[in-house]
Specification:
With about 100 residues, this protein is an all-beta fold. The protein folds into 2 domains: about 40 residues, no CATH class; about 55 residues, no CATH class. It has no helices and 6 strands. A hairpin with a 7-residue loop joins strand 4 and strand 5. The model has no long low-confidence stretch (mean pLDDT about 85).
Length: about 100
């Protein structure tokens, strides 16, 4: 497993997000993993069963000099506008497996 030398994390408070990113090359491309802490200097997220938070992730890729691939996690953002419109974010739903 390798870590990208300089992953670009964008968005509000992104400099303080403390997101960790790892990339693994596969036979078909790459597998990307990111972890987002629930508690930072900027936010505190207390997970509760069926609790919902807005979430969005974009993954850009290039096979040459220019970006030619973009994966957007939210199905609501069909026109790549969630960077300016958070209503297009997807949702993360916390699930307590003991419930």
């Amino acid at each position: 497993m390798t870590n990208p030398e300089t992953p670009i994390i964008g968005g509000g408070n992104s400099a303080d997000s403390q997101v960790s990113v790892a990339a693994v090359e596969t036979e078909d491309g790459y597998r990307i993993e990111a972890s987002v802490p629930l508690i930072t200097d900027v936010w505190t997220i207390t997970p509760e069963h069926l609790g919902v938070i807005g979430f969005q992730a974009h993954l850009n890729g290039a096979s040459a000099d220019a970006r030619d691939t973009k994966l957007i996690w939210s199905v609501y953002d069909t026109a790549d506008q969630s960077y300016t419109n958070p209503s297009l974010f997807g949702q993360l739903i916390f699930w307590d497996v003991t419930q």
